[in-house]
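Quarterly update from the structural biology core.
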Amino acid sequence: MKAIFTSLCILCFAITSAQNFDAGLIGGFCTSQVSGDNLSGYNKLGSRFGAYISYPINKKMSYQLEMQYLQKGSKKPYTENSPETYLFELNYIELPSTLNYQVKKGIYIESGLGTAFLVDYKEQDEMTDINTDKPNTLALDFLLGVQYEFKKNLKLNIRYANSISRIRKHASEEESGLNSGQFSSLVSFALMYQISR
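Predicted structure, tokenized:
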């Protein structure tokens, strides 16, 4: 919580008094899945919104820090052939930190790490709560994405994120090899609106 509070203070200060920093807002959605839960497919939709600051290192590179609310998990939707449903939703406050490189005018590649703190979660099977292993409260993700500035002060951000640390134990309860745990992966689509430079 101390890290969240510190990051929030930095972001608020940067947005209100930015000179060397770029600062702005982020809003979008993501689609995600969890490996190790015996399901497949990016069927879980969630929200992604927050704020960011970006500091130029040189003409081509910049360092970006974000604070955002992020929803991810897994879902088994209803189908006629398989009517059983399942939902595993994880809600995080995440602090992504990336290095951004401009490959050409208006196009940037980003890579970095995301440290996330679990706010709450729910796991349901056909509208009934399931009591299983609680997810870890701290998550670490690898991030890779692209930013496209299609209009002044407005960018489209497409980002892939994959867990480095596990969410919890594998559904099989095994602890070795490919069954070392449950890990999340997601693809997010967001607009980044720059409000200060």
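The chain has one domain: 2-196.
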